[in-house]
Amino acid sequence: MAPDGGGDVAGLLLAGGQSRRMGGGDKCLRSLGGKPLLAHVVARAKPQVGPLVLNANGDPGRFADFALPVAADVVEGFAGPLAGVLTGLEWAATEAPRCRWVASFACDAPFLPLDLVARLRAAVDAAGADMACATSAGRAHPVFGLWPVALRHDLRRSLIEDDIRKVDVWTARHSLVEVAFPAMSQGQGQVDPFFNTNRPEDLEQAEELLAD
């Protein structure tokens, strides 16, 4: 299925973590193939959505080269990916009111599927579900999800009043459909489309995959 080019879906780039396994700093600004890791993610995500926002904390000026709006977590204390999702939902409600959905992308996955949003949206429509997330090789990847802007108030209450931090605890309260993605060809081999560069050795492996 080809990407749908956005429609009523805003894109959310999740870069609000602390990158401990990478030694701290902005993991998404590490170099891969001669350009920042974030540039690879943007190139694959941008054609799939309408407006695109970067969720990152700290000085937004360090992302100036990407010409993207930057939104810090709306919940303090590095509350995890759910805080990033809430940030994206509230940003869309204010800055992109025509968008009914937010598609989230992790900023450390340079090979993410080009049909991610189209397949998540099709699955939600087919199942009549509230939201969707990706899976591969039997593992769920909730940071690659499709979220309804209409549930932003519910998510805010869950984060602040119920102190929920795990994505699967919140999604269990709603109707979630999971969409499986197969391994993809990269170079001369196969790679999980959600291969992520958590550690320096993962970044080295990604370099090898690009070189192939």
Order of helices and strands: EEEHEEHEHEEHHEEEH
Strand content range = 15-25%
Number of strands: 11
Strand order of the largest sheet: 5-4-1-6-8-7-9
Q: Specify the number of helices.
A: 6
Q: What is the molecular shape?
A: globular
Helix content: 25-40%
The overall number of domains is: 1
Question: Could you name the CATH homologous superfamily?
Answer: Spore Coat Polysaccharide Biosynthesis Protein SpsA, Chain A
Question: In CATH terms, what is the architecture?
Answer: Alpha-Beta Complex
What summary fits the major beta sheet? 7 strands, mixed
Mean pLDDT: 91
Return Rg in Å. 16 Å
pLDDT below 50 for ≥5 consecutive residues: which ranges? 19-23
From the N-terminal CA to the C-terminal CA, the straight-line distance is 26 Å
Give the helix/strand class. Answer: alpha/beta
What's the CATH C level?
A: Alpha Beta
Briefly note the CATH topology name. Answer: Spore Coat Polysaccharide Biosynthesis Protein SpsA, Chain A
Which key terms come to mind for this protein?
212 residues, alpha/beta, Spore Coat Polysaccharide Biosynthesis Protein SpsA, Chain A, two-stranded antiparallel ribbon, 6 helices
